[in-house]
């Protein structure tokens, strides 16, 4: 049939960007070369791979079926190339990791540091977003592996429980609830809440814990960044539900207080995500095994 690796690279890039111009910039070739390569691939296959919507190219059913196979071919070729490009082929190549906010900001930097101590030739990129964003990036094959703190409902993605985490209700040190010996549901219902945006894993788990117990909170602010929420809570603007992992230093400094709420189950799991059709290179398999065995001292404590 005569399909080339360049044609597959162009196809994957256009599928990821949805635009010939951005694909050309990513591949450092001309727009005409991208268009010609894509047209030739469609001619060889006898199928259109995209629906044209103005200047945007949207992957159709045939294109979606090709993405994992094309990505697997390119990954295998990259692995063959790395086999002869360094003393340890397992430690070469680029690993594209996606992680939801709490994991990406507070846990992944330590994991990357420990991993690259063992695999110094490995390159790693990190995409941090909310759970919904990470799932979508994995479905588009824009990342190789994902880590989330919410739930994934996509059958195309393998969801593997990774490690436990605890959420807790947090207040600023000067908040009246910080000094209260025993909290009630009414205390939380009357408080002003600062929460993560919809699509956040923390928000999803929190709302599930409250379901049937407290369904009408006074949501004062919705913020898309945990650091912003921590600052707002510390400033006394409201209270929030946050991971103990994310607030470790703020609690140690006394800026935030984690409340004891035994009437709420705020335990959760972090999950490791892999696309079922993603080819797993040796570098990716090494990283999966490393993360499975990794044990960090979070010093997060337990608010009860």
What does this structure look like?
The chain has twelve helices and eleven strands. The protein is α/β, with parallel strands linked by helices and 304 residues long. The chain has three domains: 5-83, Arc Repressor Mutant, subunit A, CATH 1.10.10; 92-162 and 273-293, D-Maltodextrin-Binding Protein, domain 2 (3-Layer(aba) Sandwich); 164-268, 3-Layer(aba) Sandwich (D-Maltodextrin-Binding Protein, domain 2). Helices cover 42% and strands 23% of the residues.
Please state roughly what percent of the residues sit in beta strands, choosing from under 5%, 5-15%, 15-25%, 25-35%, 35-45% or over 45%.
15-25%
Name the CATH superfamily assignment of the largest domain.
Periplasmic binding protein-like II
> What is the class of the largest domain in the CATH system?
Alpha Beta
Structural class: alpha/beta
Shape: elongated
Helix content: 40-55%
Give the termini separation.
63 Å
Please state the CA-atom Rg, rounded to the nearest Å: 23 Å
In the CATH hierarchy, the architecture of the largest domain is 3-Layer(aba) Sandwich
Uncertain parts: none
**How many structurally independent domains?**
3
Give me the number of helical elements: 12
Largest sheet: 7 strands, mixed
The overall strand count is 11
Roughly what is the average pLDDT, rounded to an integer? Answer: 87
* CATH topology grouping of the largest domain: D-Maltodextrin-Binding Protein, domain 2
Order of helices and strands: HHHEEHEHHEHEEHEHEHEHEEH
């Amino acid at each position: 049939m005569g399909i080339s690796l360049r044609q597959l690279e162009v196809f994957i890039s256009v599928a990821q960007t949805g635009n010939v111009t951005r694909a050309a910039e990513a591949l450092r070739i001309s727009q005409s070369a991208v268009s010609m390569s894509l047209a030739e691939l469609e001619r060889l296959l006898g199928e259109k791979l995209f629906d044209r919507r103005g200047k945007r190219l949207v992957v159709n059913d045939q294109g979606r079926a090709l993405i994992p196979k094309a990505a697997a071919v390119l990954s295998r070729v990259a692995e063959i190339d790395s086999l002869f490009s360094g003393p340890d082929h397992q430690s070469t190549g680029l690993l594209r990791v996606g992680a939801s906010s709490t994991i990406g900001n507070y846990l992944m930097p330590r994991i990357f540091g420990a991993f690259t101590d063992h695999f110094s030739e490995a390159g790693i990129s990190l995409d941090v977003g909310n759970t919904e964003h990470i799932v979508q990036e994995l479905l588009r094959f824009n990342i190789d592996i994902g880590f989330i703190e919410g739930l994934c409902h996509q059958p195309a993605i393998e969801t593997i429980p990774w490690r436990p985490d605890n959420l807790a209700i947090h207040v600023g040190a000067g908040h009246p609830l910080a000094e209260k010996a025993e909290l009630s549901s009414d205390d939380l219902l009357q408080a002003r809440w600062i929460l993560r945006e919809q699509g956040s894993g923390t928000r999803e788990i929190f709302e599930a814990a409250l379901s049937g117990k407290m369904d009408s909170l006074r949501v004062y602010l919705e913020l898309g960044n945990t650091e912003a929420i921590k600052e707002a809570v510390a400033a006394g603007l409201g209270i929030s539900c946050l991971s103990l992992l994310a607030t470790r230093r703020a609690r140690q400094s006394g800026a935030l207080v984690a409340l004891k709420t035994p009437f709420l189950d705020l335990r959760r799991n972090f999950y490791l995500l892999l696309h079922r059709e993603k080819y797993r290179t040796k570098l990716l398999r090494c990283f999966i095994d490393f993360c499975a065995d990794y044990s960090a001292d979070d010093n997060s404590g337990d608010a009860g």
